[in-house]
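Deviations from the work plan: none for this task. Representative record:
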Amino acid sequence: MKRLIAAAALMVLVAGCGAAPGAKTEDTKATPAATVAAKPDIAKAGDVTLTVWDQNVRGGQNKEIEELNQQFMAKYPNVTIKRTAKSFEDLLKTVKLAVSGPDAPDVVQANQGRGTMGEMVKAKLLRPLTDYAKVYGWSDRYSPTLLALNSFSPDGKDFGSGDLYGLSQAGEIVGVFYNKDKVPDPPQTFTTFEESLQQAKDAGDTPIMFGNLEKWPGIHNFESVLGQTADKQAIRDFVFAKEGASFNNPDFTAAATKIKEWVDKGYFNKDFNGTDYDPAWKAFAKGQSPYLIAGTWVTADLEQRMGDKVGFTLMPGVDPDAPVSLGGEDLPWSVTTASKHPDVAAAYIDFLTDANAAKVLVDTDNLPAMKGAPAPASGLSVDVSNAWQKLNDADGVIPYLDYTTPTFYDDISSAIQELLAGKQTPEQFTKGVQEKFDKWAQSR
Amino acid sequence: MGAVPLSAGRGSGAGDRPPGEPRLIGYAYLLPAFAVFFCFVLLPLAHAAYLSLWHWDGLTVATWAGLDNYGDVLSDDELRGAFVHALILLIFYSVLPVLIGLGLAGIMARARVRGLAFFRTILFLPQVIAMVVVAVMWKMIYDPANGALNRALGWVGIPGQSWLGDFSLALPSIGLVATWVYYGLAMVLLTAGVQKIPTSLYDAARVDGAGAFREFLAVTLPALRGEIAVALTLTTIYALRNFDLVYITTHGGPGNATSVPAFQVFTRAFETGQVGSAAAVGITLTAIIFLISLGINRFSERAV
């Protein structure tokens, strides 16, 4: 036994000789600065290979980026784009390692929030793009909330302000899909929406199809309700961890109480915590419920299955003229500090988000996040596009709660499952989530 | 190092080692295998142990944590819960498969069935399928609305359950999948053991008037001790390092009802930037697996 301990001690010594983990990469890195003053001429940049990591692997998204990459390389024959496509989950798990490694890509999609982008800014792995934003006029392309979602202070501590670290192409809304056969007139206010849910229940229907086995869908349903009980600025301030913002307050508890009430009244299918996401929206598509609360990423699938029987609306608001909806934009395209060609990388990002790109996005059934994008010709996309315009005109986007802290996705998705199953009261729920947040805030 | 007094006057060659003691050159033969083992097992293990002493997000400079991360394993409800779940899963991964395997082996020991190999192959089959496939398949079987299990229960008038969504059912539901996968392994190991028991022992038992059950207790069971130990060790390791099943079916949910240590290691290291804590959980898990395996082996050796 003694020998065993000695061997273990020796091994620890061998493995650990020297510095704290992460120290050697840190020493050499100065805080990256944004200093470009004029539009660089890419045609004169020489032969450049731009390595890009993205997560546009699904149908329309893949089409869109392939098309734009081709166009960019045709415009600048001296630039070659080397694309690595990974699914969202795979990208999320590898991007930090890739960017901190020796062969870091030039451009990556770094997910919003403290979990990915915040950590990477803190480690000085991303180049601030504020200078390019001025040169190219990027702030005119997006609403302030959408820019805030891709912004951090240079030390990574403040989310939602400071320098811009990336731009997104596509917008996203979590809203209400409805079956036009069952809901000829979609409700316009939160009150009439609830009445409609009760009517569906009385008629023996399942009002809202919900699949929460994978844990994250609960965030969307909860936050859709939260947007109606709490002030949108209070939600944003909490996600951005602004001074004085809190989760444990009466408005947030009201949302927890409301959604639990929906569970108790039977507005969701009975076994939602044990139902997978895909079977849930497929059940809605088969006409088994009048409503589905989901993100615009299921638009194409629903339209394919339901044709013109499906409609989309923002979560009906307490004030119908001031809609508030969970949403935002897809993963932002960011430039790494390791990139030797930040000018080319920025020009590429500019190209992915200009008016031409907006048109390509519409043509490939995506929802452009940019202002003034052309309207789609027909189908469910028209509903989605109108909702997006309406939401942005009202500045009603509230960001995903899971951006809040690096561990918040786990914290809140587990807590919501427990709330909905009655394992926690609404008061315990908001208090518990607040405690998790405070624990992080102290170690910040 | 202090000075070592030389033992003067005595010859120090190969000649004076005790008889039967291997020559030192023997260790050189171990070297290639040991080098591989050292580089790919011991070194990473030591590195993980080292990382577990730091608060590290994987990117920026770490801060010294000492034994904080290990303290969390004991005090953090979520982590402690994960270890408790792993121990509960032991029943489904190890105890049940070995009991079922014993039962089947006992039956096969008495009745020499025709087409034995065929049945054995069928029963062993779950073991061959990749765990990912098993998990996806069972997720569909457990689906509350359209799953095969609830439909089958519906035919006999039993109301369906939300197998993976119910806080008290989720862990046993996952455990039963593991039982289904691993009883085949236990059975094959144990029937192989049964076949090497001399039939004369059974004849003797029968002459002494032993019934089927008595025969099983007095002859089959003691002879299978070694195989039982192997089956228990293997399945215990599978139980404690279980990750894929939980990751694919429930992501540790509902709430944290099915969270297990390996799943915590994964999310902490790759998702939430708590590399030090992940390493501490991993090291603790390694130590527990080591101790339990050691216990099982000690027990079987002593008993034989």
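The longest helix of chain B spans residues 77-110.
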